[in-house]
């Protein structure tokens, strides 16, 4: 049984064996979370999947790292090594139509080195008849259990997914943790100072601390009580840097840390004050946004910029420029080394958390909606004035509101943005993401 919330399942295999096809089949049933945010780099090669109430993060390693200059066999070997190192479960895909290849032998050998669960999957077996014809030769590999599959036509798919979810433990229910816990996860590139930051927070505040192990394989969660509040600090894994695979592992570690996103309320993203914001930072931020998480940006190692006003300003405006859509996220300059700025963090976490979980009475929301419409008339759509009838809150974390309209299709981006800003201002939600969902009153359809 694979423990922990949301293990990482890596899909490996030679080019063209059907990894993308399988990835799409597994992930496509998932309903879209939020509209894509402009400017955010989206990586289509990983996704969170829930099957039978079990959740995991699926990673298509082929997509992560396609370097055409890599020799084929070398490439798959590296992929397998990285997967052994970083993934919790491995799906090794082979091509039933092509038959067993030397690379398959080699990968099977590599995979024998780990005790992690491995699914040896023979793809492109599109029917029971083909199973009889194509599968037999793969037993030469000496693998007891082979899974035959048609990623394209779904033969064998359900069995594979059931097999996979059978070895994943259900969501842990946080037994023994206090209620109303603020879950704060720290993200950032290797070496940005995540561990130093958490240590600094713990040392600085001399708080009641206890370690909760095993929630995620490589991360240690720390429960602490500060004032009358309880916090769970989640440190995302540091990676082991090893020779040539460093780059690859770095990508893996980012993906894996994404599993932590699923269990936090607030994602604290550390940016290296010396290096500035990187593409990997914007990727993690994008993913946090898609998951509707509250965000706090910490520009760490600020001590290294001490006295350099020009560089400081440059850096902050760079952050603003790179993340224009992120106006709501507080940005703090800090130093885990000297302790500069750390005292400001808790009040910010507190106010972000309160906003993130806020609940509003329907009457106040409707008043706000009416005022917003009076101040700025809705546009005309298909010769009719757009109407907004009423609104109510349908969720928190982040706050979500539904607004009933006569034509949700007519609510263009600019008016949507206007209403979002009005809701933010009117409800005091300036530090968190919020979602407005428009629905047609008559048909109950909408976005
Ligand atoms: N007959 C059959 N064809 C399949 C199946 N799965 C994938 N294919 C085909 O195999 C080809 C390669 O599939 P991809 O999913 O792109 O393979 P990949 O492993 O992601 O390839 P790379 O992106 O190069 O790593 C495509 O033409 C698919 O249509 C299957 O189950 N049956
Ligand atoms: N000058 C300066 N150095 C810092 C600061 N914070 C961390 N460092 C240094 O940066 C290095 C990396 O810090 P870690 O806390 O290990 O970074 P991490 O993000 O946990 O790294 P991984 O475990 O690799 O993910 C260490 O040498 C720290 O001493 C800071 O605010 N200022």
From TrEMBL:
Protein family membership: Belongs to the TRAFAC class TrmE-Era-EngA-EngB-Septin-like GTPase superfamily. EngA (Der) GTPase family.
Domain EngA-type G: 7-172, 182-357
Binding site for GTP 1: 13-20, 60-64, 123-126
PROSITE patterns: G_ENGA (PS51712)
Keyword GTP-binding: yes
Biological role: GTPase that plays an essential role in the late steps of ribosome biogenesis.
Entries under PANTHER family matching the protein: GTPASE DER
UniProt subunit comment: Associates with the 50S ribosomal subunit.
Residues given in the record as GTP 2 binding sites: 188-195, 235-239, 300-303
Organism in which the protein naturally occurs: Desulfomarina profundi
Protein name listed in UniProt: GTPase Der
GO BP, sorted A to Z: ribosome biogenesis
UniProt KW keywords: GTP-binding, Nucleotide-binding, Repeat, Ribosome biogenesis
Pfam families on file: KH_dom-like, MMR_HSR1
Any one GO molecular function term: ribosome binding
